[in-house]
Amino acid sequence: VSGGAGPLGTARGQTIRQLRLAAELEGFYRQLFLPLVRRATWKHGLSKEDARDVVQDAFVLAVVKLKAGGNARAWLACTVDNLAVNLRRKGARRARLEAHWLGPTDVPETRRAAGSETESWGEIE
Amino acid sequence: MITEQEHETVPAIRGWLAATSNVEIPIGLSCEDALRRAAELLAAIAVKSLSTDHLEVDDDLKDVLWAAVEELDAKQLCQETFEECHRVYQFILALPFNSDPFGERDEILHSVAKIGWRSAPGGHEAVRRARAAIWVHWDEEQHRKACESANRLPAEIESLRSLSRPVVPEIHRICARLTKLAPTNPRLVAPAASLLYSLLDALSRQVGQLDELEFFKAVAALATGVAARQLSEWDLAGSCQQLAAACFRRCAETLDLDHVEAERLALQFARGNFHSVSQSAPKIIQQLIIPRERIKAQIVYAWSLLELNRCDEASAALQLLLREPVILDEPALHACALTLLGTAFSHLGRDIDSTASFGAAGAILARFHYPQQLALLTGSMGEHLLRQGKLEQVRVLYSAAREAYRQVGQTRFSAYMGVLLAEVLLMLGRNEQAEKELLAELSTIEKFDLRREAIAVAALLREAVARRQTDVKTIQALRDQLRKGLH
């Protein structure tokens, strides 16, 4: 099997590129995306869906703000923490307003964060 | 215009965003499933029907472990919850986390320990207080006794080995002594604390409740690191700091990471990175919560300013620090700050203030045995008197400081003092003696690659030779030796 030019070579090249891309995305998914989703979910009490949105937002911010020389993981974790806290704060505000205007029965539930009685969630290096 | 370069991870993030813009990304186990499986896991841990040996920690299990924290957090604060937390802590500690890029295991362990101690009699606060006592400075009498009985420590640590199950109060006492003795007797503490760490590490799960073993391991690693820094074994000091930080992160009180943070700054200073210390210290100082560690970091910061000849800033920082009441509880740090302030005043030509500051440091050191602080004070006073041209007194002080550093095992500082002493001897016209002193320090200068000192030695020897016709062969041998030291 030739790896050179020609229709077969190009198709094979494309497949390899696709496989490589898929492997890179898989790595990214396991090493960055999922841990950050778990962080937003369990440390900040978000639903998994909200956590996913927060993490994606953090990635969008990273493209603009993450500069060379820094610790990318620490930066992402810190950004996810901040975005998750903001989202929870907004949720609480909305819940208060809805409780006021719609009555207590219609207030949507928010998930409790694990260890929520504790004051902090560890250090980020 | 200079633009900052983007981080190397950014292209991958861009690729990820492009690939996922229009797709529903799977988000792992649902919270409901995770909580259900967590309840099953807790039940299995309770009856010890689950072994960690063949368990693979995948993304689902990580969700389940986080959910288990939430389950434990919802339980009543009682002895039963405490015991359950202990079992869960040990179970998670034994799990093989092959990939953990965000340190989730440590965060989960930290949360479980915190919930556990909250459920214990006295609550988390009692544990926090007991642990903080390890760093509280003893009074004069206790300090004296600890210094006098220091030689017995290695044997006491060794004796833990023979116990089938070492008791926590005994380890606590040893840790407290190691922490206090690390700055006074680094030669003894470095191997002793290292031995304690290995011993605790080998004990695995047989000691204490919840995170106690991890806490003691952290203290032992930190004490080894502090002692190693004093002995200029910097790589060892750095790796001990990493070990200590890893263990502290698994503990209920992550505030203890302050001890490591301040020690990291001190190591950076010891390595001679004064500029980087002066830049990073203000932010670190702001973040430190433990008063003792904040003071330590402030001293390191002021010292780096002094080394950079920013004496005005150094003196301002030290005067501010000396106004903090908590410094009165830390004699060694107090004496160090006063000595540095004396030096800053001396540089600024404020002789009376300088002498007063040195005097105050001396009064503290007369009560508390801190040989390396005494050496620092003696050397600094010598430097001060040198500016006044009192060469004979300077010679005496430099000799005493060098000897004190040598006795503590701080060979790097003793070599530095040796070079300063030789300089004074040259000024006194004792050229032959100066040469002898310099030659005696050469092996240390080579061993520690002391470039600054080597250059000074070369210059001083040139001066000595110019004054006294030394034979050519000796000079050639010296030059070869120095070149080797300087690469």
Entry summary:
The complex is a heterodimer of chains A (125) and B (487). With 125 residues, chain A is mainly alpha-helical.
End-to-end Cα distance of chain A, whole Å, is 50 Å
Given as residue ranges, the uncertain stretches of chain A (5+ residues, pLDDT < 50) are: 1-8, 116-125
Tell me the helix content of chain B. over 70%
Element pattern of chain A in H and E: HHH
Rounded to the nearest angstrom, the distance between the terminal CA atoms of chain B is: 39 Å
Structural class of the secondary structure composition of chain A? mainly alpha
| Shape type of chain A | elongated
Q: Hey, roughly how much beta strand do the residues of chain A contain?
A: under 5%
Spatial extent as radius of gyration of chain A: 21 Å
Biggest beta-sheet profile of chain A: none
Strand segment tally of chain A: 0
Oligomeric state = heterodimer
Order of helices and strands of chain B: HHHHHHHHHHHHHHHHHHHHHHHH
Please describe what this structure looks like.
- The complex is a heterodimer of chains A (125) and B (487).
- In chain A, helix 1 crosses helix 2 (48-65) and helix 1 crosses helix 3.
- Chain A has helices at residues 7-43, 48-65, 72-102.
- With 125 residues, chain A is mainly α.
- Chain B has 24 helices and no strands.
- Chain B is an all-alpha fold.
- The longest helix of chain B is centred in the middle third of the chain and has 19 residues, at 212-230.
- In chain B, helix 15 packs antiparallel against helix 16.
- The chains are: A mainly alpha (125), B mainly alpha (487).
- Chains A and B meet through helix 1, helix 2 and helix 3 of A and helix 1, helix 3 and helix 5 of B.
Describe this protein with a few key phrases.
heterodimer, A: 125 residues, 69% helix, disordered C terminus, B: 487 residues, 24 helices
In terms of topology, how is this protein built?
The complex is a heterodimer of chains A (125) and B (487).
Chain A: H1 7-43, H2 48-65, H3 72-102
Chain B: H1 10-20, H2 31-46, H3 59-73, H4 79-94, H5 104-119, H6 123-132, H7 140-148, H8 153-162, H9 168-181, H10 186-203, H11 212-230, H12 234-249, H13 257-270, H14 274-287, H15 291-307, H16 311-322, H17 331-347, H18 351-367, H19 371-387, H20 391-408, H21 411-427, H22 431-447, H23 451-467, H24 472-486
